[in-house]
Write a structure and sequence with these properties.
Blueprint (H helix, E strand, L loop, with lengths): L30 H44 L7 H8 L1 H6 L1 H6 L1 H4 L1 H18 L6 H15 L2 H12 L5 H17 L1 H9 L9 H23 L12 H15 L9 H8 L2 H30 L4 H6 L5 H18 L3 H20 L3 H28 L4 H25 L9 H33 L18
Helix pairs in contact: 1-8, 1-9, 1-10, 1-11, 1-14, 2-7, 2-19, 6-7, 6-11, 8-19, 9-16, 9-18, 10-11, 13-19, 14-18, 14-19, 14-20, 16-18, 17-18, 17-20
Pfam families: MFS_1
Organism: Hohenbuehelia grisea
Keywords: Membrane, Transmembrane, Transmembrane helix, Transport
Amino acid sequence: MSDTKQPYDADVKDEKTLELSVDSTSDIQDPNFERRTLRKVDWRLLPLLAVVYAVALIDRINLGVARTAGMGKDLKLTVGARYSIVTCLYFVPYILGQLPGNLVLRKLGARNWLSFCVFAWGAVQLGMGFVPTWGYLILCRVLLGLFEAAFFPGLVLIISTWYRRYEVQTRLAAFYLLSITIGGFSPIFAYAISLLNGKRGIAGWEWIFIIEGAITIALSLVFYLGLPDFPDKNKFLTPEQTALILKRVEDDRGDSVPDEITFTKVKLHLSDWTIWAYGVMFMCATTPAYAISYFISIILQGMGYKISDALLLSAPPYGPAFISAMLFAWLSDKHRVRTPYIIVQAIITAVGLILTAYAPQNSVRYFGTFLTNAGCSGCIPGILAYGANNVVSQSKRSVQSAVTVAFGGIGGIVASTVFREKDFPKYRPGLWATFGMQILMIALALITAAHFKRLNRLADEGKTKKPLEGREGFRYTL
């Protein structure tokens, strides 16, 4: 074989024999060419993923808005723990489906598999507008969790394969925060839809599910046509641009070429305790995020706001969260550290929870929701980047992202169960439980950082038996 390698052909099917190279005389070494290529990837990848994931969030969390708009009364969800049961059971298939969904992503193709998932949960969401009892609502929520399970970890995996380690948090934050910012306006959108109450004999809360489900189904086609897939399978870049993207990843961490996923590898990856630590940290970050999503309009209603005001005031806390989290993501990538910024944002979350629980004035309690949302919204992409930075090989990345996001589903279960109906309207036990999880997240951030710092030191001193993560020169991100 010649030593001169050619730029990657996007039609190459045999990934095992994929060879990376860059012609030394090509544009690829031009910094302007690199910036243009990255900008092209950013604009093709991030807005599309953000919009579709925003729809996923809206479809997942609009239960609280629908309840406020009349579903709670019509389906008798205020009886006992029915509302908590309905919100909680969504997460059982959502958690169980994460790892299998990520493991088949390569085999089925990201575009085919994820577009099917979007279409399927859109159909379920639409069907929720016609449920006659709360039992049928549970069935729809279980199916919704099943079809959404593979989506978020799949998106995280795709994004992490396109960028170098210290570019990924800013991109993950942009994608995630665009999603939650768009999703943050869903209460206003839902309130507008609910004004259709009585049209064609359909209740306002039913219109919320019908219209939002129809929008999701339409977006599944857009997603199918627009998703660029993994770098080595993309069709929108030139061969030279593709070679550049793959070379950057290869130089950074050596896993631009996908390795085969086997049962033995999956077991080996799952034996790494740090993968489970990322998951628990993610659970601690998502619990307040889900609590805000599911209960903010209910908490505001409990403060004395009328239904329309409670729905409209549910959106503003998402605005400052975008600015705060993007700032922390930029700082984290710039300084190439993760845990200090995760800890700071966990503290912000904890302060917000205390204010929401105990501040005597409603205005200060409402301000607490801003702090809570800002802190947890920044921790989520920070933890995703922390995990993605500290694994090598696409098979381990698939396992790590799936396990991490699966624990996010456990955070949803915790939020659904600790915010109990009997604690309405202040939900102090739930807020205290969520506060305790921020302390746990800080502790795990310190433990993992100390562990990685020790391994890096041993590697620098030549005292490790083999290279870290099997990659010569690799060092963990703290």
